[in-house]
Amino acid sequence: MSAVKAAGVRVALDRKPILHGVDLAVAAGSWHAVLGPNGAGKSTLLRAIAGILPYAGEIQVGGQDVARLAAKHRARLLAYVPQQPQLPGDMTVGEYVRLGRTPHLGYLGVESRDDRAVAERALHRLDLAGFAARRLGAMSGGERQRVVLARALAQQAGILLLDEPTTALDLGHQQQVLDLVDELRATEGLTVVSTLHDLSLAAQYADELTLLVGGEAVARGSAREVLTEQRVAEHYGARVRVFDDGEGRPVVHLTRPRPSPGGPN
Amino acid sequence: MRRGGSPGPAVPGPGEGTTGGTLATTAAGVVSGEISRESGPAADLTGAIDDGVVPARKLARPAIVLMAATAALLLSVLVASLGGAAGLPVGGTAAALLDKLPFVHLSTGLTPVQQGVLDQIRLPRVVLATLVGALLAQAGAAYQGVFRNPLSDSGTIGASAGAGMAATLVIVYGGGPEQTFGGVGAVPVAAFVGGLAGVLTSYVLGTLVGRGGTASLILAGVAVSSFVGSVQAFVMQSSSADVKQVYSWLFGSFTAADWGLVRLAVPYAVISILIVTLHARHLDVLALGDDEAATLGLNPVRVRLIVLAAASLATATAVAVSGIIGFVGLVVPHVVRRVAGPGHRLLLPMSLLVGGAFLVLADLLARTALAPAELPIGVVTSFVGAPFFILILRATRGRDR
Hints:
Chain A contains 9 helices and 12 strands. By secondary structure, chain A is α/β, with parallel strands linked by helices. A 6-stranded mixed beta sheet of chain A has the order 6-7-8-3-9-10, sandwiched between helices. In chain A, strands 2-1-4-5 form a 4-stranded antiparallel beta sheet, with helices on one face. In chain A, strands 11-12 form a two-stranded antiparallel sheet. In chain A, helix 5 packs parallel to helix 6 (171-188). Chain A is globular. Chain A starts with a strand and ends in an 11-residue tail after the last strand. With 401 residues, chain B is mainly α. Chain B contains 15 helices and 2 strands. Chain B has helices at 23-46, 61-82, 90-99, 112-147, 159-173, 186-209, 214-237, 243-250, 259-278, 280-286, 290-295, 300-322, 328-340, 344-368, 377-395; strands at residues 180-181, 184-185. A two-stranded antiparallel sheet of chain B has the order 1-2. The interface between A and B is large, with 47 and 36 residues.
């Protein structure tokens, strides 16, 4: 069964069409990566699914129409992590993560003991148990991304929408964050939809990929099906070699211009 | 996502509402009740302590901060009640203040004249200053939260400018302060209406021109303030006879304070304080940006509209009874934030208490520094407040991100 299903989704921003009828089907419990060159509409698609952009067409989450869901109800189904989350520097980690409980509170409600326990468990889950009293401004890049994930986890939504979760992280922290997301997906039974600009990383972690170009889905399927040298060359305008990592997942490399005969190397 | 609509509540008929008891106790009661319920549980998880300092008792910190601020406010009220030409005795005045509380009856030992000075001259003025300081400071904290901009206050969204122009028009063309309107001075009524109209204009323009985002609202507020300010300058220029009167109003004063003004302000104050305080958690969520607030199940535009309307009601009420008093709404929330952190559930009630204490003391200074002459209170708040603000910024600069 599809956790997220989109059919013919069209979005226009400032009257400029960004998405021209995108289809998407994400199996429950899977990781779906949305790829594409800059400006292809990856973030726009994610924001439409999150319910924060008006769209035409159909987007269903757990069998329900996103556009018709009340904001609070939607927030219990979908957690969204933007590319650059705003972290008020003076807020503490604990305060921030507890804001993830908002969709579970009444309009003027206050966190109950249970809500605080959920938030604390989310902190624990992301190895942040000792950080509750720390200021967000005092956290490093990798820690900040974990804090934001803890906030999303505290929301207890079944579907996690991640917009470029590894931007601005170094190699080790990219791996750490993606490992964590994958682990959460497995242990908490989450469905993950993420945009990723790094094709090889997407191939490593995602079960299924959608390649978005100019607001249209031009390919979908497993990493091996989607990431061919010819397709990447065509849509990214890049010279690449695609290797196999030995476990059936493609690795995409950029290559230098072909050396002229007789030149060095 | 465009949203029209008017943030301003209907303009009330003047002279209604005679809430018994002093406002200080009413407001403080409401607020501290709210807080002990809210911050108690919130406290034991984070300890609300920053920078990794291990607290001795985690639960206590917000409570201690609030109690300290309440004590500071009460002390300020006592000191301000004592200060002045009549020379009231300390013990008797303290007893007389306690005597005002329900179910407390004390013999004060004050002469009838002293009691009269306290009841009819000092107390209304002190209570009004507390009220106005509390309203301005909390409104400032609310504006800063709504716009996610540290420089926001009633001056940036058109409230002060609107109130100033309306009051100026009444003073110059409308017969001046002697003119009454249904038993209430025409100047307060005009300031109230003008303040709300200024915010409404800014809001409508900001929403029409931009997409209702915070930047376009602030820019619209700046444009409206500047436009209205020029009209006001022209009116003042063309009527030099009234300039002094207009100026004394533009810098604020509690000279006219009496129980009538207090009674006038209390109903609106209670409404706006309740609405703003109850939206503390929403302001925390808004701090994450509109997109994230929306994906957390909040309607950011609606929350902004509600809090903006309530804060503007507070500003209009304060301006109506005291004129334009700058700096309180800008500075007090920043000072409080340095001590209590950015969480609005502590920030908003703390702003009430600290704002009240600050303005009571500023007014004491205004009426005693050059006695028998009085300084405009806006001059005192800025003259004392600005250096104090710089000191606070320097002392707590470790908290800058």
